[in-house]
# Entry
Amino acid sequence: MTDIDVTGLHKRFDAVEALTDVSFSLSGTKICGLLGRNGAGKTTLLSIMAGFERQTGGTVLVDGEPVFENPTAAGKVCLVRGAGDGVVPSVRVGDLIDYAARLRETWDPAFAAELLERFEVPRHKQAKALSHGKRCALGVTIGLASRAPVTIFDESYLGLDAPSRYLFYDTLLADVLAHPRTVIVSTHLIEEIAPLLEDILIIERGALLVHEEADTLRAAGAAVTGDATLVDSFTLGLEVLGERTLGRTKSAMVYGQLDEKRRAQAREVGLDLDPIALQDLFVHLTSGGAR
# Structure
């Protein structure tokens, strides 16, 4: 089990404050989602956590040791970034896999070979000659096969087609269950990966907005469904994030805890209450709604 402690983290690029006083801790073995709008500071945060960049202020500790310029701590973290054209090396896939294996004591060569086959990534091809989707598949293969105690996917799988993304989700979940470790996934495809997430970090404009267990965060709101007139009456005075109507049936997403008395009232009139979608909460929280 690897502990990550981020305390008072700041990062400034010239006149731009990319991160401001970010603090959180991750421990145990879980899959954590890092959510934020474009430019929120997700990539900067993950780069510092992996030791790729030096922070302006604050600390990042992995098992009590600073990660920057510390091979022991940094060796416990594997960061896989998006597969941009400018960062793909001109080497064969097989050579790149062999190089990654030499960097990681935890590397599983049999699992790497299996993943290349699953994602149909040819070992003999130049990595730069692969399609964008296949480069993404190569990246997630390296991340998964590294079996690093802290594995970070920074939007690195978003270029996969839908069947390959679902293959990634299934493989990730099965492998974390079989080989427990901390996984951090930065993503914009929130609802696709939401069932896997146990912890949620949301950052906005460089500041940490939310760090909460996924189930607790979902319980911060509810989807109220039933006869439209009854839904309107029940939600009167509540903060409604959005509504959908089909004939006489209506579903309203409300933000805020509903106590047992309110829940009992809903049941009495035949209304259904379900957890609110994580993506709807994220949009609300990062649009100047709840703070």
Notes: The mean pLDDT is 90.
